[in-house]
Specification:
The chain has about 300 residues and is of the alpha/beta class. The protein folds into two domains: about 100 residues, Rossmann fold, CATH 3.40.50; about 170 residues, Glycogen Phosphorylase B (Rossmann fold, 3-Layer(aba) Sandwich). It has twelve helices and ten strands. Helix 4 crosses helix 7, helix 5 packs parallel to helix 6 and helix 5 crosses helix 10. About 5% of the residues have low confidence.
């Protein structure tokens, strides 16, 4: 059995092949990707649809779009990702710290605070977590933050993630911002810092215009963080009433959602509890079980 985890598969093999397709934006939004990758991954997805025994899609939206675009001969399984609930949870656990200047704390809350200090992040803040690339709508988030920053004078915007293709748009938007000094760029952050950043955030903003799954949104819910994400996407499907949403690319709606998330205490508490319930349904154990079921099906049907 061979499992191609990222769209591709060996085209000449005698073993059963399973391929994971994350999203179809290479077809629907080629402008969000480098031109060479569009050619490579469009072909790879078409090949997988014809030649793999099974294709695994990370959401119903991805599976439906694959059926519409590629009419796969392979059987399509929907296998969502999971969240590590031992790491991503409202009450932080003790463990190793980030950076050589940070002590190991017995108080988990103090450990989170030390992680933020090592990253030069100060509360309160709006957090974006992910690669800075066109589909993530980070320039729109910077503009939305800029529009509310005068009314939330202590608030900062933290952009945590590596620059990706097209990140120059983010740089231009930050440079244009009246509050550029309150936009914190951490770059890549180590794995152990991610839950702390999510837990301590006043709001987690994940305004991506489209995703196959949107794992950062689920991890935010698991940490009990207020979540703002994009309407009509897999993230809004996943989060439901646990998140506030804005139309894709709308700076005004995004700003309104951020302000609402910062201000409505009782409603925010209800969304938080619902978010924790939702996140608890998505475990890596369940994802692994679904993978095994797909492998067994593929192995049985490849022999026929």
């Amino acid at each position: 059995m061979h499992h191609g985890l990222h769209y591709t598969m060996p085209e000449h093999t005698r073993v059963p092949v399973v391929v994971t397709v994350h999203d179809l934006t290479f077809f629907d939004h080629p402008e969000w990707h480098e031109r060479a990758k569009v050619r490579v991954f469009r072909r790879a997805i078409r090949v997988a649809s014809r030649r793999a025994v099974a294709v695994l899609c990370v959401s119903n939206r991805t599976a439906q779009r694959l059926e519409e675009l590629c009419h796969p001969d392979a059987r399509v399984f929907v296998v969502p990702h999971g969240v590590d609930l031992a790491r991503f949870r409202p009450a932080p656990s003790s463990g190793s710290s980030v950076g050589t200047d940070v002590r190991t704390f017995t108080d988990p809350s103090a450990k989170d605070e030390a992680i933020l200090e090592a990253l030069s992040v100060r509360e309160p803040y709006v957090l974006f977590l992910g690669t800075l690339e066109p589909r993530k709508a980070v320039p729109e988030l910077v503009a939305a933050f800029d529009s509310i920053a005068d009314r939330a004078r202590e608030l900062s915007l933290v952009l945590a993630g590596r620059p990706g293709w097209g990140a120059a748009q983010v740089e231009r938007q930050v440079a244009m911002s009246r509050h550029a000094d309150r936009v914190i760029r951490t770059g890549w952050v180590p794995d152990e810092a991610v839950p702390a950043l999510l837990r301590k955030a006043a709001v987690v903003a994940y305004p991506a215009k489209e995703e196959g799954f949107g794992l950062p949104a689920l991890e935010a819910l698991a940490c009990g963080a207020p979540l703002v994400t994009t309407a009509g996407t897999v993230m809004s499907d996943l989060a439901g009433a646990a998140a506030l949403t804005a139309a894709p690319g709308s700076v005004n709606e995004l700003a309104e959602a951020l302000e609402a998330a910062l201000s409505d205490g009782d409603a925010a508490s209800k969304r938080r509890e619902l978010g924790l319930e939702i996140a608890a349904r998505y475990t890596w154990e369940a994802s692994a079980d679904a993978h095994v079921a797909a492998y067994r099906w593929a192995a049985e049907h490849a022999r026929k």
